[in-house]
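Bug #77: duplicate submission created two jobs. Keeping one. Sequence:
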Amino acid sequence: MKKVMMKVNGRPYQFIVEPDRVLLDLLREDLRLTGAKQSCDRKGQCGACTVIVNGKAVRSCLQKVTNLDRAEVITVEGLGTPDNPHLIQEAYVLSGAIQCGYCTPGMIMATKDLLDRNPNPDAAEIKKALEHNLCRCTGYKTIIDAVKLAGRFIRGETSPDKVRPDPNGSKIGVSHPRPSAMIKACGMAEFSADIKLQDALEVAVVRSVEHHARIKSIDTSKAEKMPGVIGVMTAKDIKGSNRIKIIFPDQPILAEEKVRCLGDAIAIVAARTKKQALSAAEAIRVDYDPLLVLKSPQEAMAAGAIQIHSEWPNLCFSQPQIKGDAEKAIAESAAVVQAEFSTQINHQAPLEPEATIAYLEGEGEDAQLVVAGRSIEIHVHMANLQEALGYENVRYEEAYSGGQFGQKAAMSSEAISAAAALHFKRPIRYIPSLTESMVMSTKRHPFTMKVKLAADANGKLTAFTIDYIIDNGAYMVIGIYIIMRCMWMLSGSYGIPNVKALARLVYTNNPAGGAARGAGPPQVTFALESAMDMLAEKVGMDPLKFRKINSLQPGQSVSTGMVYDQWPFPELCDAIKPTYDRAQKEATTFNSKNGPMRRGVGLGTHAFGIGGPGDTGRVAVELDPDNGITIFAAVADPGEGNDSMLTQIASHLSGVPMKKVRLVTRDTDHTTEMGPAAASRMTYMAGGSLVLAIEQLRKAMDEAGTKTYEGLKKAGKPTRYMGSKKAQGKEGPLDPVTGQGPSFESRVHAIQMAEVEVNTDTGDVRVIKVTTAVDAGKVIHPQNLEGQLHGGMDQGVGFALREEYIHGQTKDWVTFKFPTMKTSFDMDVIVRETPREKGPLGATGVGEMTMVPTAPAVINAIYNACGVRIYDLPATPEKIKAALAAKK
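Kept job's structure:
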């Protein structure tokens, strides 16, 4: 032990610490300064823990406290408060640089160090200063903008008051500061691991080291006797079904007789400290009888293959889709292309680990089990916990979420912490490492796709066939829904008269697939949009013109047979054409020079569906005694800006100032089921429900001749109203034989254009710029819309070029190849606003759109640059170099 003196945020402290104590843990655990975050298992990879020590930005997870005697430390909490923020915090809020907010405190502290040294940095200097700070949400563009704006504030060139929109002005089409942005900027937003639980136990989980095996025995005797251990629990200690269920009840919370995937949870250890729990977990011995591991759908579908689940076949679902006669049309077409494409297992890569807490509120049989985590569907997860644990009185509370990108449509750590809280009757903290979080969470499904695409002599599409197989991993999660989403959006932006598709979903011993930004369409769109470029080349037509002439037209049907009255895609082709022409001209000029560097331009498009058949939203509004409005809705906000959407729509329609619009969205006791904050549906469904609720309130006010709470009360009118928007079409599957049926009520349209530079000697690809032209209807909050587009571009480029999750090998952000400031690129957004007939105020949604067509745009640009096409994502330098060698 060693005594250390230091100042933290100007206050002197004395600590007596062990030699391995790091500054991050001292700040978070001893001083409760939780603005500094932990994402990368204290490897210094993420920068979320950045603070200033002796005037220099450092990653606090790497700083031994024993080396900091007499140091002066500043954390984000010491920089400013919501009532008195620092200019840098103001700049991040006003630039729209804060989405989930998990990386924000670290980014702000790195910015403080930079601007103290250089108050007028250029983009290159900003990227260098923030090179250790990761962000998954923004694509880094608005962070660079925020640093530049902060510099302007500090240099006195402008002020926050001059930049901030007038809160009394227009509410729609204006980027008012997000309601949650400033508390995130000041490090005051509580994420799951930040919540303080008195007398809490820490838990560790014993996970399978086998990919597929029977469990012969579990020996916990040694662990139970170890220091600090309160107890060990296994599947026999869970009183309910012990099943995590969305579609099939096939995933145990704790494995019973069998493990089906590396990392399946087997036992829970509860101890007084995390270190004690982890040590005891290592002492538990599990004896396995290994079974054949099925590593691919092909192996799983082979004759005589071992069945992974006794209740369901390995080929657990299939769905055809037939529109017209595709085979006949192909035989009669003037031009046909065919190819086989594949995509990789990918991790959604939110920065926050899978942390949750759970505790019992109250005493005895009436105690309520409270679970706090990052769910984007709190009511469904609450109901699942009730059934799985055999305990009815459950409340789920949504903590602030460090991103999720679809991942938290499924439960992971919540069931572990909840089961432990019930069993041990003590508050529980389950704060897994990044490595363990990667092992336990769902992934983006890998696809293999065989495609044919055909056109007539005039370049008009005649037919599209696709046979695709999805590796669903060891558990169903939402696998069937992934197939349905692919089928609902299969024909993309185009009018294709003849379509034949077959989708097959297969259990393997790989990690379970789940929701991931776009959830299915990014994979099939990669195949379709690659084939579109191939076919455009074959018919001798420019790729943009080819896409425009093949646009679906109002009154025509998509591949499910559903007819659309609105389809503003051709106008987007016109909107992006000047930028496309400029990019092509610049690439041609660049390529006229000799050398290994070649530039290319590529396109990708999509028409992303929002408001699926029978989708329903529910939002309640209540007029408060001070004539403000409280909105009650289980509308999760893991970073996309749903708090802005609800606040600004409510203020616009009611006339209530935004500061008097209150949100109650984060717990199951005070909200009703709203469905997931996924599928880009919240603006359309929750916003639409909010509009209906406020219309009822306004009608009651008109009938009572009043605008006040007191007036409604005197008139005997209710002060609370529920709005429920329901999308058209019957909820349920497509026709099992033809795949025909209703699709999404609304579509958001986009064209993505990638400009890349390929080194033909090494195969390396540098993305120069990505431009997206988008029509998402009426824009409520321009910064939020652009922020979603930027983040989707960045994730799409990672999906195209770098990112691949290899189970058991991908363990941190370096092995994952997380996007950084160094890999960031220029971005541009072209926005058209065609009001949607059934959308709230004419709006729809945009969160996933830009992820979907990015990968094919990049792959098409690579082909345009150097003449080689990559069919198997990601397009690594090795694959490109091999393709170039094969071409010679």
